Amino acid sequence: MSEKNKPGQSPGRRRGEPNRVPYYKRVEKQEDAERRQAAAEGREPVLRRGFYRRAVEEDAARQGLTVEEYGVYKGSAGSAVKPVNSAGGLLAISIVLTVITLFCTVMFIMLLLGGEPFNWGEIAFGLVMVYIFTPWSWWYYYVERRAEKLRRERGKTLIRPE
After folding, report:
1. What is the residue extent of each domain of the chain?
2. What band does 67 get if pLDDT is binned at 50, 70 and 90?
3. Residue 77 phi/psi, 5° resolution?
4. Pick from 73, 45, 46: which is nearest to 59 by CA?
5. Confidence (pTM)
C-alpha cells in the first residue's frame, strides 16, 4: 500500500492534510444515528426536511428564536456571493423579478401575435424559469417581513452571520 492511499484517505488528498468531510455528509451521518437510536428506543424518529430548513432550525435555536421569528436562511453556505436576505433587499429583488416577468410576458405575447416561427422549447423554458422565481422571491419577502415584525413585537434581535 502506497503512502498516498492509506485507509480513510481519499486518493486526491495530500499526505498530512486533515480529512475534511462536507457539512451535509456529517449531518446525514448524525441523522442516521438519530434514526437508529429512535428505532432502538421504539419511538418515531424526528424527520428533518432538507439542508436549508435544518440550518434555519439550528441557527434559530442557537439565537433563542423560533423558526417563524428567524425568517429565511441567513447564511451563505453554497453561495459565491453574500446573500441578500433582509426584507428590504428581498422586496427589491421581488420587484425587479416582477418587472422582468411582465416584460417577458409582453414579449411572448408579441411573439405569438407576430406569426413568425420560433423555438417553443426555448420560450417555454424561459417562461417557466421566470414564473417560478418571481413567486418564490415574493414568498421569501413575505416570510422575512413577517419574521421582522414578530422579532420587533417580541423585542428580540437577530445576529446576522458575517
Report:
1. 17-47, 48-154
2. confident
3. -65, 130
4. 73
5. 0.63
